[in-house]
Design goal:
Helix content: 40-55%
CATH class: Alpha Beta
Radius of gyration: 18 Å
Number of strands: 8
CATH superfamily: Phosphoenolpyruvate-binding domains
Number of helices: 9
CATH topology: TIM Barrel
Largest sheet: 5 strands, parallel
Length: 248
């Protein structure tokens, strides 16, 4: 290969990388605009026949939580004129033929995220980052891989690893300090990269009490998480209490 051909190849690679980066930035900006608008509810559609289990799970105060798991369903969601979607660990695990009990790896999830994002023309996608796939160092790499895949957001939770689907019994959560360190690591990596990606901090601490879950969410916000998510409120009153006491 000549020097000129090699230079042309490198230039093309750089050009397309820049184009993809700008496209991701535009999607993330669109997501931030949605988060700033509390005047409406944004629905993210469910796929693969699991709408009956996920369509009514509270995501954040303005979102109803649903998912996409591959390029086909991502395109179906966008063509149906929805303005956001979510790549779920539950859904991706099912596509691989596994239950949602922490069997998927960091790179498998990031690879699936790239497929989903490449299929989406304009709408943003938030990816399920589970517990971060290791300690804080691993979690930082997870944030980096998800951003490189084109995902506009990443959800990090406070379950003990290996985690399990939020609707299964036998869940356990880590200590407050470990939960806070996870979110701090995600925020630090986002800021270090200089690439905007929404940090969604999820807590399953409602297995202890709604007050414990709310306290964790308050600290998540103070650490720089953009939005929070309490898994499994047990009543309308718990949801109202959470929404009234925690911003975003």
């Amino acid at each position: 290969m000549s020097v000129i051909s090699l230079f042309s190849l490198l230039w093309c690679a750089f050009f397309f990388a820049e184009v993809l980066s700008l496209h991701q930035t535009a999607k993330t900006k669109a997501l931030r605009r949605m988060l700033a608008d509390n005047s409406q509810i944004h629905l993210m559609p469910c796929c693969y026949g699991i709408a009956h289990t996920l369509a009514y799970i509270p995501f954040i105060t303005i979102f109803a939580h649903s998912l996409t798991v591959d390029g086909l369903t991502a395109r179906m969601i966008e063509k149906a004129n929805f303005n956001i979607t979510f790549m779920s660990g539950f859904g991706v695990s099912a596509v691989y033929g596994y239950p949602d009990v922490g069997l998927m790896t960091q790179t498998e999830m990031a690879s699936q995220g790239r497929i989903v994002c490449n299929a989406l023309k304009d709408i943003p996608c938030i990816g399920d980052g589970d517990t971060g796939y290791g300690n804080e160092v691993n979690l930082k790499r997870t944030v980096e891989l998800y951003a490189q895949a084109g995902l506009s957001g990443i959800m990090i939770e406070d379950q003990v690893s290996p985690k399990r689907c939020g609707h299964l019994t036998g869940k356990m959560v880590v200590s407050r300090n470990e939960a806070y360190n996870r979110i701090k690591a995600a925020v630090d990596q986002r800021d270090k990269m200089g690439v905007d990606i929404i940090i969604l901090a999820r807590t399953d601490a409602n297995i202890i009490s709604i007050d414990e879950a709310i306290e964790r969410c308050k600290v998540f916000r103070s650490l720089g998480a953009d939005i929070t998510f309490v898994e499994g409120p047990k009543s309308k009153e718990e949801m109202v209490k959470y929404c009234s006491m925690v911003s975003n």
